[in-house]
Design brief:
The protein has 243 residues and is an alpha/beta fold. It has helices at 21-25, 34-48, 66-71, 76-100, 122-130, 148-158, 192-197, 205-213, 228-233, and strands at residues 14-19, 53-58, 105-109, 118-119, 134-138, 163-168, 173-174, 186-187, 189-190, 218-222, 240-242. The protein has one domain: Acetylglutamate kinase-like (Carbamate kinase, 3-Layer(aba) Sandwich). Helix content is 38%, strand content 18%. It has a 9-stranded mixed beta sheet, sandwiched between helices. Strands 7-8 form a two-stranded antiparallel ribbon.
Length: 243
């Protein structure tokens, strides 16, 4: 009798998926590409149905970046708050896409806005995950001067995630920008100190420090591909692992 291929099994019970705002923009320079939102939602729903508990942090760079406002002469604090509001818009768009996939989803915001989202409460977030609801953390950390990478690391530690999955537009971590330098070398595995010392732009130093102190692995991979989130969750050597 022919052998029946075994279904892949997830190696993580609970993950935090970090998605950049640019990823939601797709081929556009600005805003939300509905096809991309649908694609991300379909991939997340796929692992959710396997029993993986999923939390998300999404950036706001497709709408507004706090650092860009500062470069234009805007007050940094006001600019960062505008960037946080952009993440709320993206979170609501992704919630809508996920619920169309039949997945119960909750948005929790670090900035209180009761008509749009729940306030971030750690115990409530964990309870949602235990009840197999997806939780999207919006509003960054709620404080200026911190990136959504830091928010992802902080929330991942708070909910005791097994790993951070950072979905980007590049298929891993390179020694240089592979789009500008064809000789850039891709790393399969890095430790935290190497990534910090080599100044590899995976996450900012604050986020790295949080992950290092709490021994939280980071998997960096390309979001654009068939079942990429599923493949990473099931342990395929896709992208780069920082641990």
């Amino acid at each position: 009798m022919p052998k029946v291929a075994k279904k892949p099994k997830p190696i993580y019970k609970r993950i935090l998926l970090k998605v950049s705002g640019e990823a939601l923009a797709g081929d556009r320079r600005y805003g939300i590409d509905e096809r991309m939102a649908k694609s991300v939602a379909a991939q997340v729903a796929e692992i959710h149905r396997m029993g993986v508990q999923v939390a998300l942090v999404i950036g706001g760079g497709n709408i507004y970046r706090g650092a860009d406002g500062e470069r234009m002469g805007m007050d940094r604090v006001s600019s960062d708050y505008m960037g946080m509001l952009a993440t709320v818009i993206n979170a609501l768009a992704l919630q809508n896409a996920l619920e169309k996939e039949g997945v119960p989803t909750r948005v929790q915001s670090a900035i209180e806005m009761s008509k749009l989202a729940e306030p971030f409460i750690r115990r409530r977030a964990v309870r949602h995950l235990e009840k197999h609801r997806i939780v999207i953390f919006a509003g960054g950390t709620g404080n200026p001067y911190f990136t959504t990478d830091t928010a992802a690391a902080l929330r991942a530690v708070e909910i005791s995630a097994d790993a951070i999955l950072k979905a980007t537009n590049v298929d891993g971590v390179y020694s240089d920008d592979p789009r500008k330098n064809p000789k850039a070398v891709k790393y399969r595995h890095l430790n935290y100190l190497d990534a910090i010392q080599r100044r590899l732009k995976v996450m900012d130093t604050t986020a790295f420090s949080l992950c290092m102190e709490n021994k939280l692995p980071i998997v960096v991979f390309d979001l654009h591909g068939a079942h990429h989130i599923l493949r990473v969750v099931c342990g395929e050597p896709l992208g780069t692992i920082v641990s």
